[in-house]
Amino acid sequence: MAKRWDGRPYRTLCAEVRRRGDPCWLCGHDIDLTLDPRHPLSFTVDHLLPLSRGGSLLDPANARAAHRSCNSRKGNRVAPRTVGPASRRW
Asked: Is 65 helix (H, G, I), strand (E, B) or coil?
């Protein structure tokens, strides 16, 4: 089945993620939803498990809010699982 970025289900998923108002899951900073979509700090949906690695396009559990630049920097890598800051400096 072809990936449908322009279909209603994908637009609905994007609207749901946007409506939550979550900060960028990659850098933790707030996302300005009024920015032009081409702006590096604008809102985009990032997939926790990249589509090129078998992630689901329409699974809400795989969709996260991100800045366009953070999403581009991550590319198709699987984001590392983080457990929080280290307890002490090494």
From this structure: strand
User: Which residue, chain included where needed, has tokens 């994007």?
Assistant: 14
Cα separation of 86 and 90, whole Å? 9
Token couple for 56: 């689901």
State which amino acid sits at residue 24.
C
Contacts 24+ apart (CB under 8 A), 61-64: 63/13, 63/14, 63/17, 64/17, 64/22, 64/25, 64/26
Give the DSSP H/E element, type plus range, for residue 43. Answer: strand 43-47
- Over residues 13-67, the pLDDT tens digits come to 999 999 999 999 999 999 999 999 999 999 999 999 998 889 899 999 999 999 9
CA end-to-end span of the chain = 48
Give the three-state DSSP class for 22.
coil
d(CA 19, CA 33): 10
